[in-house]
């Protein structure tokens, strides 16, 4: 294993800071405007409404449009969710368990298929779709 030492520089793009960086990257510019709009709207309305209005503003002004159209609900939910390290670790652990179960079920299905078990029987036991089993 190789160790890697990394130095990261963080730039603040809030409120027009570091314009020289933002002006060359449409995504960063869109993100800066999006977050500025949330702050601006939140002075007049609850955060949930401010986020929705900022999303609508960005979409109508063609900023982050594709991303926001595809992930609008996810963005709103993420911005309204309080983040903390313990919760993040719990979510990561749960996702790991789910992935492990998924891999385990596929491993069992593959072994059953190799032993000549009927595909319909494998599907019944593992709850996997038949087309997934056929691809194993």
Described by strand count, sense and barrel closure, the largest sheet is: none
The total strand number stands at 0
State the share of residues found in helices, binned by percent: 55-70%
Our Rg estimate from Cα atoms comes to 23 Å
* % residues in beta strands: under 5%
Number of distinct helices:
7
Low-confidence region ranges:
none
Q: Which structural class matches the secondary elements?
A: mainly alpha
Assign an overall shape.
Answer: elongated
SSE run: HHHHHHH
Averaging pLDDT over every residue, what do you get?
Answer: 90
Task: Note the main attributes of this structure.
136 residues, elongated, mainly alpha, 7 helices, 2 domains
Summarize the structure.
With 136 residues, the protein is mainly alpha-helical. The chain has helices at 19-22, 26-42, 47-60, 65-80, 85-114, 119-126, 130-135.
């Amino acid at each position: 294993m190789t160790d890697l030492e990394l130095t990261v520089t963080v730039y603040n793009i809030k409120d027009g800071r570091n314009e020289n960086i933002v002006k060359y990257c449409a995504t960063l510019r869109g993100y800066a405007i999006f977050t500025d709009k949330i702050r601006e709207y939140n002075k007049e309305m609850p955060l949930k409404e401010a986020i929705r209005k900022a999303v609508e503003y960005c979409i109508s002004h063609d900023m982050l449009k594709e991303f926001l159209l595809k992930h609008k609900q996810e963005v709103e939910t993420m911005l309204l969710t309080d983040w903390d390290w313990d919760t993040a670790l719990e979510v990561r652990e749960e996702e790991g368990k789910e992935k492990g179960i998924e891999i385990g079920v596929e491993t069992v299905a593959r072994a059953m298929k190799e032993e000549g078990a009927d595909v319909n029987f494998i599907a019944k036991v593992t709850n996997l779709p038949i087309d997934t089993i056929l691809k194993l």
